[in-house]
Each structure stands twice: as structure tokens, then as C-alpha cells.
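Contributing new complexes? Match this layout with FE2/S2 (inorganic) cluster.
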Amino acid sequence: MKPPPFAYFDPTTLEEALGLKAQHGLDASVLAGGQSLVPLLNMRLASPEVLVDTNRVDGLGGLRRSNGTLELGSMVRQYVLEDDEVVAQAVPLLAAAARHVGHRENRHRGTVGGSLAHADPAAELPCLALVLSAELVARSNRGERVIPASDFFDGFMSTVLQPDEILTAVRIPVPAGNVGWGFEEVARRFGDFALAAAAALVTLGDDGSVASASVALAGVSDTPVRATEYEQALVGTDPTPDNVASAARIIERLVTTSDDIHATQVYRRKVAAVTASRAVTAAVNRARGGE
Amino acid sequence: MAGDMRSITLTINGRQLSRDVETRLTLADFLRDHLDLTGVHLGCEHGVCGCCTVLLDGRSVRSCLMFAVQADGHEIETVEGLSTDIDKLHPIQEAFSEEHALQCGFCTPAMILRTKELITNDGELSREEIREQLSGILCRCTGYQNIVNAVVSAREKMHDPQVAGR
Ligand code: FES
Ligand code: FES
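Output block (do not edit by hand):
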């Protein structure tokens, strides 16, 4: 259980880091918080020739809110989402869901960008990026690319990031108007990866019906998924718990994760539909001004 | 053991020191094998058990998931930083002993450091919250009941002006 040898670099500027990625491409892994990569190294499931440690790179660890956007540097630690007042004000969904990301000890090191780039389909942050319609900023020596979260995850633990690119920031539109949020997760133990997790944003119209809904799930497929059909089924309806739950049956079809040691597919379908409807109901209650 | 070497300087349990390390050496192995701080326990070496927890600049982290080079310039605290003298235990160590919060002791250094962090930063946590906050460290012996008792008792001791100074 010791990592294989690698050439180690810990640049202090983004330019140097990008230079290393340009030079080594796929042979170089970016080491962010290390909560997923280092286990892979220790178990020798990964053996990159080069590690580009971005922990000392200047300028990737900040966060700010401006013009309706919350921008998080890719090296913002996950515990900051939990603790920071600006995050709690701007995107309370993110602040509340963050405590489900691993354990507190993991969140002290783990980063926002690291989790997104690792793209574990059962992880919370990729699912949150989708539900919040975040944009991901990737840099390389060729320039900057802004990628909508909906285009970012392109397969099992795989993203559209190119071998010379590094994720530098995430931009999250601050939800505005009469909008509520919900997050529900079922895991075998607190802090484990989700059997299924669902995040929801719901906007209510003046008559109390659903004006718009955004729902995403983790743990149910090769990538995090948006439940588009469910969202459409909700719009225009009176979101009573019964209506929300019966419409959630559609969710069962999204579940493609096959039987594993944690759950059968049949069970996961049920859990996915229930977490989604609970997340939506919580969002509706918050949009109505309740807690 | 040919490998990428680096010289690092860091503060460990209040003492500054410098060493040459291979870049792939984990912080846990550095603390145990190079500095004899064997209170850092390795259960799984891949981030699952939490027994290797140390405080990095006051925050709990899994030392098996960091490289020693990454701690260059930082401050580390291990359980040895609290007390190694059986007659002068730190109040948290006392609480763990009095409440029978350990059996084999494998998870104990991690639990004690995490308790120190919780008492310092998080104020009045309920028993339920304490459980959630300890969820990152696995104990295979105690059933956690007495560990939660010890955290509560340690907090009382630390808030008692008679012992708080220690
Ligand atoms: S040894 Fe580090 S978490 Fe188990
Ligand atoms: S006392 Fe044995 S593992 Fe906790």
C-alpha cells in the first residue's frame, strides 16, 4: 500500500502548472486534495509518471460573489462550502449538501475542482454542479474554455477536460426569485458515497404551481444525471407531496447502475425515486418560505 | 530507494525540524518511520479508517492521503503533542481513560485529536452532532457510546478553569 514512484512538481504559478500539463499530457495527473487520487496511488490502481501538485499554485483558492454569480476557485476546500457565510447566503443548497461529501477530515483537504474533475458518478459535487447549471472554467496554454456542467461529464469517471487542461474555477449562477432547494441522500453509512442522492431547485409561480424545476441525481448512472422528464412533468402542477411523489416514478427509468454489493438495481430505482421526490418536496416547502 | 528527494522543514508538536524525504513518502510513514511518532496508526492506507488522523495547521486530515513534502512549511500535531506522560495526561486523554472510551486503542489517537479540534472550534455540539463529526474515524471495539461520553466529559474538563490551562 505505498504509491509507485513518480516525478513530483509543486509549482506556485498556474503558468508553470499549465506548462507541465502541456509537456506531459496524460502522463501527468493533477494532485488537488488527494482524497481520491492518493488512494488510487496507494493501491497502485493509478501510476502516473508525473504528479502536478496544485496546492501551492497561487490564485486558485478564492471565492467571490458578483453579479449574480458565485465563483469558486478550483482549489477551494470542500469544508469551506460548509463554513463560509458567502456560500451559505448565495447558494444554501451547496452549503447544506457539502456535509455529505466524505467526512470532515476529507473535506479539510478535498477540493471543489478535484471532485468535479474526478467525476465519480456517486459523488455529490458533480450532481450539484448539474442541478445548479454551473459553468466550469478550464485553462491550458491554448487559452480558456468555459464548459457548461451539462457537457462536462462524458462517461464513467470521465470528463471532457483535455490532457493539457486544468480546471481553474466553477461559476454558479446564484438562484434568484421565489426559489427553494432540497437535497436528499441515502448512503449505507454517513459519509459514504451515495446509493442515490438527489438535489432540487424549484421555483413557484404566484398561484403556487411549479414555474420551473431542476433536479439532478448521483449514484444512479455512469455520470450524474439531470432528470429532465421529471422536471417537465412537475412544471405547471400543484406540488403536493402526492403529486411530486407519483411523478417521480419517471426517475426509475434513469437508473442504469447495475446490481452491486451496496444495492440491487431494483432497490436503487426505488431509492432514487424517493430521494428525488423528497428533495423536490423540501424545495417546494422552502420556496413557500418554510424550512 | 532511489527516488525524487526533497528537503522539508515543518513544525511537529511545536518543534521545528528539517529532513530529506522521498517525494512519494506519505506524511503518515514520515511521522511513524522517520520520527517515531507511532501514535499515528495505519489501518487501511487508503483513506477509509481515519486512524491516521493528524492535525494539519489545526485541522484534522488523513495523513495516509498526504505526502510529507506537502507538509513542508506547515504545522502538524500528533497525539504525542498532547502528553506522553502517564502521570500528566491531557484532559482529553484523561476523559478517554475515565470513560472507558478505548479498548484496543487503535482508533484512539485519531479520536483524541479530532476531539481536540471539535472542542477548540465547534463549541456546544449535541451528542448526535458529535457522532456525525466523529463519523470519519472507525472504531471496531467500543460501539462509540463511551467515545461520545468522553468527548462530552473532555469538553467539561476543558471549560473548567482549573484544568483548561493545561
Ligand atoms: S490509514 Fe489513513 S485512513 Fe486508514
Ligand atoms: S478502541 Fe479498538 S478500534 Fe477503537
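Reviewers usually confirm one structural detail per submission. For this one: The interface with chain A takes residues 3-4, 6, 23-24, 26, 29, 44-47, 50, 53, 56, 59-62, 64-67, 69-70, 114, 132-133, 135-137 of chain B (CB under 8 Å).
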